């Protein structure tokens, strides 16, 4: 009972602090909602409604803060403001960096910057007023509980955040899988049908004087639209011989490079008859001196 009275005493926070926290919460809420409402349609694979549901845990605290303050649950509102302001400051920096790198739409960037600026305002004002308020039973325990909630918000963000847009990750994954399948097909074609000699070309990758000499094996995944992310190149390496009127080679190399480096992909890939995929993050073709990328054995590329 004593705690309930202490938490609701009208003289604890001054009106201007409550108004400042209320406006900071409203500005942060509207800014985040504006940024993501514009941003969400460009995210592939998940609808707007589901994205908004995922966003709710980050939006609702900005509703609860003024609600608690205006229902005279002052200490509870200040504790939540401290927790949210601390928890979402670093995520705000990461999102601004992401948009500045990959999107650059000023309306999204401006809203995120405004929302970020509200986080230290919430933390500083709430901490200042909470320290000046009379101590109440279990006050520190409840503050710790609010901070745990903030930590969970930070953890949720970290689980959902990717430093690279999902479509680039998908392009790279598809390019690697396509190269792996094509290399496997070339090896099977050579081993099973042409005495360990590899084809002149891969059908659809480049013009071939004699289409009959290009590998068109059923194990090869048909190449997608190059504009979707990557273009592919096949090179037969001498010595060569002639088999059934077609030039065949003793080895081969295959490469995949982004159509627009930094926009449709940020890695280039290389594979030869060993089947190992090499990758580089430089704007050039990958080669055997680049490190082997083993992420085909995992479910995602490192971010």
Q: In words, what does this structure look like?
A:
By secondary structure, this protein is of the alpha+beta class. It has 2 domains: 2-160; 166-297. The chain has 8 helices and 6 strands; from the N terminus they run ααααααααββββββ. It has helices spanning 2-7, 15-39, 48-70, 74-87, 89-102, 106-132, 139-160, 166-193, and strands at 201-202, 214-215, 230-243, 246-258, 268-272, 277-280. A 4-stranded antiparallel beta sheet has the order 3-4-5-6. A two-stranded parallel sheet has the order 1-2. A hairpin with a 2-residue loop joins β3 and β4. α3 runs antiparallel to α4 (74-87) and α4 (74-87) packs across α6 (106-132). The longest helix is centred in the middle third of the chain and has 28 residues, at 166-193. It is rod-shaped. The two termini are 51 Å apart. The model is unreliable at 1-13 and 299-303 (pLDDT under 50).
Structural class: alpha+beta
| Neighbour order of strands in the largest sheet | 3-4-5-6
Oligomeric assembly: single chain
Number of helices: 8
Shape: rod-shaped
Strand content: 5-15%
The N- and C-terminal alpha carbons lie at a distance of 51 Å
User: Any low-confidence stretches, pLDDT <50, length ≥5?
Assistant: 1-13, 299-303
* Largest beta-sheet characterization: 4 strands, antiparallel
Counting DSSP E segments of at least 2 residues, the number of strands comes to 6
Count of distinct structural domains:
2
Average pLDDT level: 81
